[in-house]
TrEMBL record:
The keyword Oxidoreductase applies. Mn(2+) binds at residues 28, 82, 164, 168. Residues 98-198 form the Manganese/iron superoxide dismutase C-terminal domain. It comes from Salipiger aestuarii. It is an enzyme of class 1 (oxidoreductase). Pfam families: Sod_Fe_C, Sod_Fe_N. It catalyses: 2 superoxide + 2 H(+) = H2O2 + O2. Signal peptide: none annotated. Keywords: Metal-binding, Oxidoreductase. InterPro entries: Mn/Fe_SOD, Mn/Fe_SOD_BS, Mn/Fe_SOD_C, Mn/Fe_SOD_N, Mn/Fe_SOD_N_sf, SOD_C_sf. This is Superoxide dismutase. Coiled coil: none annotated.
Length: 199
């Protein structure tokens, strides 16, 4: 089963007025994400993973004892991460659904505190990685950060919101100002309806 690069759910220039340029999406989606998909297909061809789902490959190849993950894991997980990431953003104004707002307030006290903690996780991730809002196995919400392509699937968690903090995600628009990129992501880019639908 060959994996395919999903189309963006909006035009390449649809997020430009909200802080993510057409050039960023052309590089990030069309080149970086596509490379993960192409490499993943090469690595799975003729192997035991050839007919497995993306989620099965991610969870089946993650090695919690490894200093560095395998190429198969890295490309599978980054394909999964990015497929979620595009859906978690949108060009239209997005109001946070009441059930999500209530859950965030219950877990973090205020929406502002949630945003502060999420931004701190992303800014504090040394090197490449992701910041996540997850629903844990006990049903509670928590903020995590992961290195490189590691994602919540590896820990039995449900990803509600993820922000890519690899430099290719923000350098064209924000240069080295990762905190500004994270603030803009939360304030202008997140599709809160999509986040709520994952609960």
């Amino acid at each position: 089963m060959a994996f395919e690069l999903p189309d963006l759910p909006y035009a390449h220039d649809a997020l430009a007025s909200k802080g993510m340029s057409k050039e960023t999406l052309e590089y990030h989606h069309d080149i970086h994400h596509n490379t993960y998909v192409t490499t993943l297909n090469k690595l799975t061809e003729g192997t035991e993973w050839a007919d497995k789902s993306l989620e099965e490959i991610v969870t089946g190849t993650y090695d919690k004892t490894a200093i560095a993950q395998s190429g198969l894991f890295n490309n599978a997980s980054q394909h999964w991460n990015h497929a979620q990431f595009w859906e978690m953003m949108g060009p239209d104004a997005s109001t946070m659904p009441s059930e999500l707002e209530a859950a965030l307030k219950e877990s973090f006290g205020t929406i502002e505190k949630f945003k502060e903690d999420f931004s701190a996780a992303g800014a504090g991730q040394f090197g490449s990685g992701w910041a996540w809002l997850v629903k844990d196995s006990d049903g509670g919400l928590k903020i995590t950060k992961t290195e490189n392509g590691v994602n919540p699937l590896c820990f039995g968690q449900t990803a509600l919101l993820g922000c890519d903090v690899w430099e290719h995600s923000y350098y064209i628009d924000f240069r080295n100002k990762r905190p500004a990129y994270l603030a803009n992501f939360l304030d202008n880019l997140v599709n809160w309806e999509n986040v709520a639908s994952r609960m």
